[in-house]
Every structure is written in C-alpha cells, then in structure tokens.
C-alpha cells in the first residue's frame, strides 16, 4: 500500500515537471516573439506612421488607411454581432422548445465556431459581395466578420445564460413577473459580465483576421480612408500582410510597427474584458 502511494506521488511529480517544462517553453517562445516585434516595431512607430498612407518607400509608409478601415469595419461589426448573437442565445436558451430540432441547431452553431475563417471569406464573397451586390465595401467586410465570430458569441452567451441559477428565475416568477421581464430584468443582468467577456474576446479575434477579408476582395494598397459603409477599405492585418510580401528589407520594420500597433489594440481589448468581468462580478 505504501509503495503504491509512493508510486502515485512520483507519477504526480513527473507530470508536474513535464507540464512546467511545456508551459515554460510556450512562455519563452511568446516572450521572444513579443521582444522581436517590440524591438523592431518601435523604430518606425511615431506620429507620422499614424497619419501617412501606404507608400512604395518604407520610410514614407504609414498605416492611416488600415487604421481607419479597421475602425469602420469593427465599429459596424460590433452592434450587428452583439445584438444578433445575444438575441439568438436568449431565444435558444429561454424561449426555444426543448426538442431535437433545437438541440440540432445548438450543435451546428457550436460546430460553426471551428470552421476555418477562409470559408467565411468565401461565403462573404458569394453572398454579400456578389449576390447582394455590396461590392468590396465596409458593410460587406463587417458582415463577413460578423458571420465569423457569431458562433463564438452565441455559444459564450448561451453558457452565460445557463450559469444563472434557476432560483433567481423562480423568485422573479413568484413576485408576479412574466417571462420577458424575468429574462430582461433578472437573467440578462446576471449573465451580462460573461456575455461581454466572450463578446470582447471574439472582437479581438476579428481584429486580427486577414484571410476572410482578402478572400472577399479587400484592397491591399489604399491611398484613402473610407467615408461611408459602401466605400472600399483595407485593415491593419492586410497592410501587415502586404508589407511582409514586399522585397525591400526595410518593410520588415514597417510590418513590425503595424504588428506592434495590432498587439497593443489586442492587449487593450483583453484588458477591458478582464476589467468588465471583475467589476461586474464584484457587484
């Protein structure tokens, strides 16, 4: 009996060491990548980098078009994704009948979250760009990215709604509230922190996507900023992709500056998600 206990403790220590080694390797690689991006990107990252358009000359290249395009696309995508995703999750969890069809719909939504992003780009090209005749516009790009992240938003919102105790629902019904008031006044506020956390993390994914926008025909070299939702556009990841494909070695520094800017945006969004979750959890 003692030998068996010692064997289990030894096995436990071995696996702890193995897991620690793999975690350390991952952190070292991540730190090396961040250091490489920061050390190269900080060289070109100044105010003029934000106010200049792209150029054939690395010293004159800027990210203004990509920055404005990202703001337009993400700014339009956010309300579409949030309201459609949250409403879908509320219907599936609170109103849809509990039958095999509902279970099949939930299963397919969960499966959609694992589909490669380029497939959504092909869908956006076929439906929004060509069939609905939106062209290579900001609206088509926002709708394509919305399709990409909607499954993640819906699934995370469903999990947030499921986590609300039934005792809160029953207490609301006991006080005379109907189903909608219970969902709107009790269930949704309780689930909102987790819904917002999942939503912001999904937005973080959308900001860094390149493949679906390239597939639907977003531009790579742009010398203007979009003035409306039907204008052509480019985004920061596409500009970074374009700079890395150019032959001049100096464009590597420009691409690193764009990557650093994108990394800062992602850190801000993830920090915001953590702050929202912490603040609402305390309440």
UniProtKB/TrEMBL annotation:
<feature type="transmembrane region" description="Helical">
    <location>
        <begin position="138"/>
        <end position="157"/>
    </location>
</feature>
<feature type="transmembrane region" description="Helical">
    <location>
        <begin position="65"/>
        <end position="92"/>
    </location>
</feature>
<dbReference type="Pfam" id="PF00528">
    <property type="entry name" value="BPD_transp_1"/>
</dbReference>
<keyword id="KW-1003">Cell membrane</keyword>
<keyword id="KW-0472">Membrane</keyword>
<feature type="transmembrane region" description="Helical">
    <location>
        <begin position="112"/>
        <end position="131"/>
    </location>
</feature>
<comment type="similarity">
    <text>Belongs to the binding-protein-dependent transport system permease family. CysTW subfamily.</text>
</comment>
<feature type="transmembrane region" description="Helical">
    <location>
        <begin position="186"/>
        <end position="207"/>
    </location>
</feature>
<dbReference type="GO" id="GO:0005886">
    <property type="term" value="C:plasma membrane"/>
</dbReference>
<dbReference type="GO" id="GO:0035435">
    <property type="term" value="P:phosphate ion transmembrane transport"/>
</dbReference>
<dbReference type="GO" id="GO:0005315">
    <property type="term" value="F:phosphate transmembrane transporter activity"/>
</dbReference>
<feature type="transmembrane region" description="Helical">
    <location>
        <begin position="253"/>
        <end position="276"/>
    </location>
</feature>
<keyword id="KW-1133">Transmembrane helix</keyword>
<protein>
    <recommendedName>
        <fullName>Phosphate transport system permease protein PstA</fullName>
    </recommendedName>
</protein>
<keyword id="KW-0813">Transport</keyword>
<dbReference type="InterPro" id="IPR000515">
    <property type="entry name" value="MetI-like"/>
</dbReference>
<keyword id="KW-0812">Transmembrane</keyword>
<dbReference type="InterPro" id="IPR005672">
    <property type="entry name" value="Phosphate_PstA"/>
</dbReference>
<feature type="domain" description="ABC transmembrane type-1">
    <location>
        <begin position="67"/>
        <end position="273"/>
    </location>
</feature>
<feature type="transmembrane region" description="Helical">
    <location>
        <begin position="14"/>
        <end position="35"/>
    </location>
</feature>
<dbReference type="InterPro" id="IPR035906">
    <property type="entry name" value="MetI-like_sf"/>
</dbReference>
